[in-house]
Write a structure and sequence with these properties.
Number of helices: 14
CATH architecture of the largest domain: 3-Layer(aba) Sandwich
Number of domains: 2
Helix content: 25-40%
Number of strands: 14
CATH superfamily of the largest domain: Glycogen Phosphorylase B
Largest sheet: 6 strands, parallel
Mean pLDDT: 89
Distance between the termini: 50 Å
CATH topology of the largest domain: Rossmann fold
Length: about 400
């Protein structure tokens, strides 16, 4: 089996379990001695002054927590909503009007045990002081399987704590309210189940990603809009149509990447059919796969791998008529921005991770009896990702044309 960050998970399992046990014993004593910490009683919503939300990873997951956090603010209108996050989830929470404070933990989760020991040890004390200063009445842990986050919720001092009782992870013992994480239910709805354990419901399931004028200005500096071709002596009055590709994936999961040459064939066809410009978006570690796509294309395109921030990427996405992407963070970002999206799925389950977006299409080749096989940051070792290599460009193009036709009909 392939695991993401196995060293970190082993460390969490060993030391997390020991810390978890100490905290559980402390919790039993505290509940006996201090009435405030006795379980079962939810506070009057008007009396709640502070709510701590823990969500360390990642951009896509963070965006899918937005309806749950918005519901917390609606249910506890007098409370300060504080989010504890890392650089990988931070952008999902910036400028959200219902989030009052952000505590940033300087860990990416990509550097393995070395990063955890060098950065984590030094930052743990400050993190604990920051969450204790928030003095939360309620702590909501929206991470999935680590034991460290229930411990942080417990150490925050919040008498009411909610989170996932994730199958096989033994992490619910420090929560006063918990819910199972359902295997095939969309993750956005799973996050709502956690706040639902506190008696909170909502009808607003929309995503949001507010952009500022500065974000648009920075994006224009990174990738100026291309003018439509015009004859000599004339001035272009409009900009060219634009299509975005995200051919990469999280550094941890290259198995989610559709073949680069297939992306190239789709891009060339879209250029020919739409007269569109093509921009490749992604992080710096995706430079190689971008180069592979560009080398396989016969039409021009531009790679911005590592050349934009997440917010600049978002400001470029809103200029696009279409995004074609693997199952990765920008897919969820496009959904939050209402950008039509064709999402390519292989090892991961579209029932749980598909774009939360009406204007999207999911494509998958039904050729592998193991797919979807990703679960709890683990998947089988595959020498070739058969479920993706058998998904042909023509299928993705058909989904793209369907979306573009729908958009044209809507505009008409």
């Amino acid at each position: 089996m392939t695991r993401s960050n196995p060293g970190v998970k082993l460390l969490d399992k060993a030391f997390g379990a020991a810390t978890f046990g100490v905290c559980a014993l402390w919790d039993c004593v505290r509940r006996l001695l201090v009435p405030r910490y006795r379980r079962g009683c939810l506070p009057d919503p008007q009396s709640v002054r502070s709510v701590l939300v823990i969500k360390l990873c990642c951009l896509g997951d963070g965006l899918l927590t937005i309806p749950a956090i918005r519901a917390l603010k609606s249910s506890y209108p007098r409370a300060t909503i504080t989010v504890l996050c890392t650089p990988r989830s931070h952008d999902a929470y910036v400028a959200q009007p219902f989030i009052d404070e952000i505590i940033l933990v300087n860990l990416t989760g990509l550097g393995g045990v070395k990063e955890l020991l060098t950065r984590g040890a030094g930052g743990l004390g400050e993190t604990l002081r920051a969450i204790r200063r928030a003095r939360p009445d309620i702590a909501v842990d929206l991470d999935l399987y680590f034991k460290a986050t229930p411990v942080l919720a417990f150490l925050s001092g919040a008498p009411v704590r909610a989170g996932f009782d994730t199958e096989g992870c033994s992490r619910a013992g420090l929560f006063t309210h918990s819910t199972p994480r359902k295997r095939t239910q969309h993750e956005l709805l799973c996050f709502l189940d956690v706040v639902g354990a506190l008696g909170i419901t909502t009808q607003d399931l929309s995503l949001s990603f507010p952009l500022s004028p500065g974000d648009h200005e920075a994006a224009t500096a990174s990738y100026p809009p291309a003018p439509l071709p015009c004859r000599e002596g004339e001035t272009a009055t409009a900009t060219a149509r634009l299509v975005a590709l995200c051919p990469g994936s999280s550094r941890n999961w290259p198995q989610k990447q559709w073949p680069a040459e297939y992306f190239a064939r789709v891009a060339d066809n879209l250029v020919d059919r739409l007269g569109a410009g093509v921009v490749l978006l992604g992080a710096e570690h995706e430079t190689e796969v971008h180069s592979q796509v560009l080398a396989a294309m016969t039409r021009p395109a531009v790679s911005l791998a590592g050349k934009t921030s997440v917010r600049e990427m978002a400001a470029i996405l809103v200029r696009c008529e279409l995004l074609v992407t693997n199952d990765t963070g920008p897919m969820h970002l496009a959904a939050a921005l209402d950008v039509p999206t064709v999402a390519i799925f292989g090892p991961t389950d579209e029932r749980k991770w598909r774009p939360w977006h009406r204007r999207s299409r999911v494509v998958r080749a039904p050729v592998c009896d193991r797919a979807p096989c990703y679960w709890l940051s683990t998947m089988p070792d595959c020498k070739t990702v058969h479920c993706l290599t058998q998904l042909l460009p023509e299928t993705v193009l058909a989904a793209a044309e369907d979306l573009l036709s729908e958009a044209a009909d809507g505009a008409g």
